[in-house]
Amino acid sequence: MTGASRGIGRAIAEALAGEGITLLLHGRDEAALAATRQLVEAKGGRATTLAFDLRDRGQINEMVAQANAEPLDALVNNAGIAVVKPYDALTVDEWLETLAINVTAPFLLTQQLAPQMPRGSSIVNILSPAAKTGFPGWSSYCMSKFALEGFSQSLREELRSSGVRVINIYPSATDTDIWSGVEGEWPREKMIAAHDVAAAVAYALAQPATVVVENVSVASLAGTL
Ligand SMILES: NC(=O)c1ccc[n+]([C@@H]2O[C@H](COP(=O)([O-])OP(=O)(O)OC[C@H]3O[C@@H](n4cnc5c(N)ncnc54)[C@H](OP(=O)(O)O)[C@@H]3O)[C@@H](O)[C@H]2O)c1
């Protein structure tokens, strides 16, 4: 799983942890990854950590090699960034960074891992309402999530005959650190919690191997953002 050092990724790690479950936890912050590993181990699971920047394609190859050491039940493409500013203030570096982390990394991991994945295994992509709707100030983020949405929908059809499931999760605004980098007042108390998103992922993965929960939107009753 990518982006397991905090936020939604850490909550997914906790939700999936248990006896007989081994997780490969990716992020950049080694201390934060170690804290996630401890949470996994406290629930009886096992975890190894791998810290690197997803813009580094060589390190992505290393993650693939480690993930392929055992048959893989699931790839969770969770890591993501949001650079929120008007389209005419975005730099090309911010645009390409968003593309690299939010789209190219999931593509490369999927391309290299899916061919070896057994029937009934799953690829989980953490998307957003921003994969379907444009929001002012969020053009680079929306660009990336729309792109991942298109890849994911095509992938689902390409993998259908191999029995690998593609599960798309659409959390509405979720109270995580990602909002610390977004200017403006955001009502964090109205947001859903990372654990709410993780519960949806765990539910989708727990379905029989012949069933795919294709698209899950998780929203707050307190209002939408
Ligand atoms: N929070 C929301 O409202 C919301 C709503 C819908 C969808 N999402 C999506 O949910 C996913 C997780 O978001 P979050 O809210 O949990 O964000 P978060 O708390 O900011 O966590 C982001 C995660 O991505 C990792 N990451 C960021 N840049 C990276 C890079 N260059 N290389 C490797 N890892 C990198 C971070 O690792 P380090 O901390 O170790 O750097 C961290 O584990 C994202 O795809 C996001 O778009 C979030």
Based on the model shown, name its key terms.
225 residues, Rossmann fold, two-stranded parallel ribbon, globular, binds NADP nicotinamide-adenine-dinucleotide phosphate
Task: Write up what this structure looks like.
- The protein has 225 residues and is α/β, with parallel strands linked by helices.
- It has one domain (7-218): Rossmann fold (3-Layer(aba) Sandwich).
- Helices cover 40% and strands 14% of the residues.
- It contains six helices and six strands.
- It has helices at 7-16, 30-42, 57-67, 92-113, 139-159, 194-205; strands at residues 22-27, 46-51, 74-77, 122-126, 165-171, 215-218.
- A four-stranded parallel beta sheet has the order 3-4-5-6, with helices on both faces. A two-stranded parallel ribbon has the order 1-2.
- The model has no long low-confidence stretch (mean pLDDT 97).
- The structure holds NADP nicotinamide-adenine-dinucleotide phosphate.
- NADP nicotinamide-adenine-dinucleotide phosphate binds at residues 3, 5-9, 27-29, 32, 53-55, 78-81, 101, 126, 128, 171, 173-174, 176-178.
